[in-house]
């Protein structure tokens, strides 16, 4: 069994995928736009003009696979009650990843030495997704 995060960016999915590609080296493995759906969609599922929005995407960061979508395209993504944990192999890489994720985002806990890690910090990226960057002790 496997649990995979599915992130709904509410209209900003393509922008988020490009951000993660640049910041984290994410590889987009699948992307389907609304207009490419093989089945008819209920007329109220997406607002008019959403045919180029992302209906479903899959991407890899390291060994992890995540999924994403534009969701209902209402322009108000909300990410609450969870964070994605990113394990960096070195302190230098943790610094780089933390800075990349924090570009346009908000630092919640600065990256620093803790009792459980030589480097740990928490940041919400520009889309509001929470990240915990850690180097194993």
Describe the structure.
The protein has 137 residues and is an alpha/beta fold. It folds into 2 domains: 6-69, Signal recognition particle alu RNA binding heterodimer, srp9/1 (2-Layer Sandwich), CATH 3.30.720.100; 84-135, Signal recognition particle alu RNA binding heterodimer, srp9/1, CATH 3.30.720. 18% of the residues lie in helices and 35% in strands. It is built from 2 helices and 8 strands, in the order E-H-E-E-E-E-H-E-E-E. It has helices at residues 13-24, 91-102, and strands at residues 6-8, 27-33, 54-61, 64-69, 84-88, 106-112, 119-124, 130-135. It has a 4-stranded mixed sheet, covered by helices on one side. It is elongated. Pfam families: 3-dmu-9_3-mt. Residues 3-134 form the PhnB-like domain. This is VOC family protein.
Number of domains: 2
What summary fits the major beta sheet?
4 strands, mixed
Order of helices and strands: EHEEEEHEEE
The rounded distance between the terminal residues' Cα atoms is 28 Å
Please give the radius of gyration in angstroms. Answer: 16 Å
What is the third-level CATH name, the topology of the largest domain? Signal recognition particle alu RNA binding heterodimer, srp9/1
Percent range for helical residues?
10-25%
Using the 3D structure, state the CATH architecture of the largest domain: 2-Layer Sandwich
Q: Estimate the strand proportion.
A: 35-45%
Average pLDDT works out at 95
Level-1 CATH class name of the largest domain: Alpha Beta
What does the overall shape look like? elongated
* Biggest β-sheet: strands ordered side by side in the sheet: 1-4-3-2
Protein name: VOC family protein
Pfam family, one: 3-dmu-9_3-mt
InterPro entries: Glyas_Bleomycin-R_OHBP_Dase, PhnB-like
């Amino acid at each position: 069994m496997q649990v995979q995060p599915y992130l709904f960016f509410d209209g900003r999915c393509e922008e988020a995928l490009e951000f993660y590609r640049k910041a984290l080296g994410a590889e987009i493995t699948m992307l389907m736009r609304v207009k490419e759906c093989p089945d008819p969609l209920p007329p109220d599922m997406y607002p008019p003009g959403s045919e180029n929005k992302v209906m479903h995407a899959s991407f890899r960061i390291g060994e992890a696979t995540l999924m994403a979508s534009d969701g209902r395209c209402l322009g108000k993504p909300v990410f609450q009650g969870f964070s994605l944990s990113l394990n960096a192999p070195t302190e230098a890489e943790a610094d780089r990843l933390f800075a990349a994720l924090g570009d346009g985002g908000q630092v919640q806990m600065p990256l620093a030495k803790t009792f459980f890690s030589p480097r740990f910090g928490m940041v919400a990226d520009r889309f509001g997704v929470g990240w915990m960057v850690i180097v194993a002790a």
